[in-house]
Design brief:
Helix Hairpins; Four Helix Bundle (Hemerythrin (Met), subunit A); about 0% strand
Length: about 325
């Protein structure tokens, strides 16, 4: 018995106006994101190059300091002259302290270099992951043109503008949300640093820093290590926030830019290694943390306002698109 002929395969369904429009919007958003990431990647590459230069300079200084220590420890003219002057031990102690400070500077420079390198890797992965955004947009426009030709829709021009507006708006909204995350991270780091520095003021009044020498037991050493780590975390968070704020074109807040605050923390770190027993250093650091918290809090308020406005504008555009597409 013969088998009935199978039905011919059906032709693929024509894309609906909503699907064509959605792909055009997605392509426009990808193009805007590609441009944004390209700008950030260029800045990150420059920052990595600068960080590499700082590591090289710090290592060169460390080599010089190590050579100074070696000259005083060996039978060299330097050691002989220091011995004749009766200053060898004090000179050696000073040079060793300077060598330790140089070692610390190398470690900090390497940490910053590693962070910059990780940022470049992450950005490049996201950038490459978007693929051929120009080709995608051309294909989406071709599909939209074909759909309009089939339907003769009079709203074609406005739909195309809505797609472009939504793409740019959504890319900007992504940037605002990223800046808000960085803001919250910075506020958290600054809050932890503020609490520990407030406690540090109590250490100094409890004969921790004065009349008893510098940090006479391991518990106090550990406290200062915690303070150092929290200040470094705050410094890194402010640096990350500065990058995010540049993406959204944020202006200085209250006359203090985030980059200025980062430099202020760097100045404190440059001195705390050799001078952190001084009460004024703790007060100065606490003041900078308080200033940073106030500035970042104002940044957050403005970012939330801008995000709410962007979301409101997006809702209007989405509603208009649905009206034009009959959805």
């Amino acid at each position: 018995m013969s088998q009935p002929d199978s039905a011919p395969p059906s032709a693929p369904a024509e894309p609906t106006g909503a699907r064509v429009q959605a792909e055009l919007e997605a392509a426009a958003q990808a193009a805007a994101e590609h441009a944004r990431l390209g700008t950030r990647l260029a800045a990150a590459d420059a920052e990595l190059a600068d960080a590499e230069a700082q590591v090289a300079a710090a290592r060169a200084r460390l080599a010089d300091e190590a050579a100074d220590v070696a000259r005083l420890e060996s039978f060299s003219p330097t050691r002989i002259w220091a011995g004749l002057r009766g200053s060898r031990e004090s000179d050696l102690d000073r040079e060793r302290a300077e060598q330790q400070q140089a070692e610390y500077a190398v470690a900090v420079a390497q940490l910053r270099r590693d962070r910059a390198r990780d940022a470049c890797t992450s950005l490049r992965s996201a950038y490459d992951g978007l693929g051929d955004v120009a080709g995608r947009r051309r294909a989406a426009l071709d599909a939209k043109e074909a759909w309009l030709a089939r339907t003769g829709a009079p709203e074609a021009a406005e739909l195309e503008q809505v797609a472009a507006d939504l793409g740019v708006l959504r890319s900007g909204t992504t940037e605002l949300r990223g800046a808000l995350v960085a803001t919250d991270t910075a506020l958290d780091a600054l809050g932890q640093a503020d609490r520990l520095l407030s406690s540090a003021r109590g250490w100094s009044t409890a004969d921790t820093f004065f009349d008893g020498g510098l940090l006479t037991d391991m518990v106090k050493y550990d406290r200062m290590d915690q303070a150092q780590g929290l200040m470094r975390a705050a410094d890194d968070a402010l640096s990350d926030l500065g990058v995010e704020l540049a993406d959204v074109g944020m202006e200085p807040v209250g006359g203090v830019e985030i980059t200025d605050l980062v430099r202020a923390f760097d100045v404190w770190f440059d001195n705390i290694f050799s001078d952190w027993a001084v009460r004024e250093r703790i007060s100065e650091a606490a003041g900078r943390v308080a200033e940073a918290r106030g500035a970042v809090g104002e940044v957050r308020r403005r970012l939330v306002d801008r995000l709410l406005q962007a979301e409101s504008r997006e809702a209007v555009l989405v509603a208009r698109r649905e009206d034009l597409l009959g959805g």
